[in-house]
């Protein structure tokens, strides 16, 4: 493989295989092998849950504070209000995630349509 092969038809597929699929699947295989042996209340699983929750919170914060695309056209107050309403719906309507997502999306869409 040389620099000239970067324009060949197969290069993007090889890149996806090496840079995308292989690194993530290694961790998936390790998770499957170890996952059956880890107790649900173990410290390792508590740390994994905490990191996963922090990553989701970071993505949500980035979408609210630094949006891109058509979401960037909305005001920050609309985005924060929709997220707050979704969280309130989660708390008051039985702690169901799908209900909170639908409420937040409905408020965000209505706010975009009315502005």
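Q: What amino acid sequence fits the structure above?
A:
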């Amino acid at each position: 493989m040389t620099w000239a092969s970067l324009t060949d038809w197969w290069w993007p597929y090889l890149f996806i295989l090496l840079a995308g699929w292989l690194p993530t699947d290694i961790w998936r295989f390790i998770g499957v092998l170890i996952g059956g042996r880890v107790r649900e209340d173990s410290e390792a699983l508590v740390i994994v849950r905490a990191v996963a929750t922090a990553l989701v919170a970071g993505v949500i914060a980035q979408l609210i504070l630094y949006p891109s695309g058509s979401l960037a056209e909305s005001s920050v107050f609309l985005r924060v209000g929709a997220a707050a309403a979704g969280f309130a719906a989660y708390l008051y309507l039985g702690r169901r995630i799908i209900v909170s997502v639908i409420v937040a999306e409905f408020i965000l869409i209505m706010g975009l349509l009315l502005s």
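Q: And what stands out in the fold?
A: Helices lie at 11-35, 43-65, 76-92, 97-114.
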